[in-house]
Amino acid sequence: MIRPIRALPALVLAGLLAACGGQSHDPGAQPARSSSAGLPSGTTEAGEQAANVKSAATGQTCIDCHGAGGNEPIDPTYPKIGGQFRDYLAHSLQAYRDGDREHALMSQQATGLSDQQIADLAAYFAAQPSQLRDLRGAHDR
Hints:
Blueprint: H1 4-20, H2 44-51, H3 62-66, H4 86-98, H5 106-110, H6 115-126
């Protein structure tokens, strides 16, 4: 008979091995999905670079319209996206890219973006200081 205390380390080790067992160490394997949008992990550094690349479709960068850090849009009708939730940004870009959301500029801007580019852009803009606010009291007179 195995005593419960002696079996505990073996159970802990088995649990750790099971938790780690699903990860692949194959360099050619697909990256782990890290968001509710099903995207790979994004980095702020790559996102900052991508935010400054002109789109072939529009000739604009993200910064051209949304401003530095996503908080200085050139038009007051353009959203401030700095500090927005990463998954919201990723879902929005995916929807523009895939035609599930329509906007004259954004649909074209997102057309050629890969999942990795979307993840990077979302990581970058989510990491910026937020100037977002809720609409509490916005319609009070």
